[in-house]
Amino acid sequence: MRELAGIVALLTGLWPAAAEAGFRTPESLVRNVYAYYGEGAPELSKGLPRDAATTRQFFDPSLRKAWSEPRNEPYDFLVQSPNWKLGPVAIAILRKQYDKTYVAANFDNRGRRVALNFILVNGPEGWLITDVESPHDSLRMFLEQFRN
Mapped to the 3 state alphabet, what secondary structure does 106-137 carry? Predict the structure, then answer.
């Protein structure tokens, strides 16, 4: 009985950490990325943060370090510009392939059409970003290129 209580206590202690990471659907993950690019509250208007909690919530372990490292980027990859005023974001699942789901995000940024494909994985932590592709680059390559 004490062993069972110990296991329950251990699982209860781990549950909040798992609940903080990831999202329940691919669409909700992408929708929440772009919530940080609005014109509302100041904390939701500066782009996707690079802090540890946000990084853990949005990115799979293989991309977390690259996203959170300091760097000097010429623009924000997720909006393809150093500044933004986004129109409505259209989100659609393109395909599911093995363990990855490809989700398209299309929007206007200051009148310029932007199309990105999010590559997402679903694991124990929920849906997380493993990469984002633009027509000319990927988030992984971009972060590597502008690493300090």
Answer: EEEECCEEEEEEEEEEEECCEEEEEEEECCCC
